């Protein structure tokens, strides 16, 4: 990877550079799946958190759970979830836009006063495409995309996953950037493209 490749991961469509990582331990909760799939999703989150060198916890003192993953069949289901509209203002109009766009996934982040991630919501509408994905692959892709605040274009044309023989793994370049992004010597939030050079330097150090 070049510094430019790394910069592209965090440069949004409007040209702004923005990197953020979690500023607190991650406490996931998953809705809409059976127990077997629940274990797969939480296992993928644990694996990516371990890769980052970050932490998980049993509860968040402010929010209880701070990473909420919803598996749904239709966007119209979300406004019916009790108290979800309290956490996500304009939930109804958001779901209407997602339905009109025929979107099958959406991620929403909340930030603390410093700009670090303090909560995230992952919504997966299980259309034919997502339903055809093995649960392990879908869970790993979502865990990777929620461990950092990536650009809205970062994975638009290429998945964060790669196939090695019969196995599906996290792309090595994506894994390297996640690991570098959580280096204690680097800031939890960065808005200058020079941050990509610091990530590159961490990669060069191995």
Describe the structure.
The protein has 206 residues and is an alpha/beta fold. The protein folds into two domains: 1-18 and 160-206, no CATH class; 22-147, Chitobiase, domain 2 (2-Layer Sandwich). It contains eight helices and eight strands. The chain has a four-stranded mixed β-sheet, with helices on one face. β4 (105-111) and β5 (117-125) form a beta hairpin. α2 (35-52) crosses α6. It is globular. The two termini are 13 Å apart. The model has no long low-confidence stretch (mean pLDDT 94).
What's this entry about, in short?
The protein has about 210 residues and is an alpha/beta fold.
What topology does this entry show?
Blueprint: H1 3-9, E1 19-20, E2 28-31, H2 35-52, E3 67-72, H3 84-87, H4 91-100, E4 105-111, E5 117-125, H5 128-132, H6 135-146, E6 161-164, E7 167-170, H7 172-181, E8 189-190, H8 194-204
Parallel strand pairs: 2-3, 3-5
Antiparallel strand pairs: 1-8, 4-5, 6-7
Helix pairs in contact: 1-8, 2-6, 7-8
Low-confidence stretches: none
What is the overall pLDDT average? Answer: 94
Quaternary organization = single chain
Number of distinct helices: 8
**Major beta sheet, strand line-up:** 2-3-5-4
Second CATH tier, the architecture of the largest domain? 2-Layer Sandwich
Using the CA coordinates, give the radius of gyration. Answer: 17 Å
Count of all domains: 2
- Category from helices, strands and their pairing: alpha/beta
Instruction: Estimate the helix proportion, in percent.
Output: 25-40%
Measured distance between first and last alpha carbons: 13 Å
Helices and strands, in order, run as HEEHEHHEEHHEEHEH
User: What summary fits the major beta sheet?
Assistant: 4 strands, mixed
Mass-distribution shape: globular
Strand content: 15-25%
Number of strands: 8
The CATH topology label of the largest domain is Chitobiase, domain 2
CATH class term of the largest domain: Alpha Beta
């Amino acid at each position: 990877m070049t510094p430019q490749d790394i910069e592209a991961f965090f440069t949004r469509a409007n040209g702004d550079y923005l990197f953020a990582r979690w500023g607190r331990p991650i406490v996931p909760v998953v809705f809409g799946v059976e127990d077997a799939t629940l274990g797969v999703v939480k296992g993928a989150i644990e694996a990516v958190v371990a890769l980052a060198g970050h932490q998980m916890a049993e509860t968040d003192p402010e929010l209880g759970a701070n990473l909420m993953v919803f598996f749904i069949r239709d966007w119209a289901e979300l406004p019916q979830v009790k108290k979800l509209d309290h956490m996500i203002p304009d939930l109804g109009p958001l779901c209407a836009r997602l339905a009109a766009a025929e979107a099958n996934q959406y991620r929403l982040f909340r930030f603390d006063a410093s700009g670090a991630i303090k909560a995230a919501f992952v919504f997966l509408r299980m259309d034919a495409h997502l339903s055809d994905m093995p649960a392990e692959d879908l869970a790993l892709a979502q865990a990777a995309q929620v461990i950092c605040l990536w650009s809205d274009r970062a994975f638009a044309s290429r998945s964060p996953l790669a196939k090695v023989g019969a196995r599906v793994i996290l792309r090595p370049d994506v894994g390297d950037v996640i690991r570098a992004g959580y280096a204690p010597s680097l800031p939890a939030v960065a808005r200058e493209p020079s941050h990509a050079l610091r990530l590159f330097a961490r990669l060069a150090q191995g």
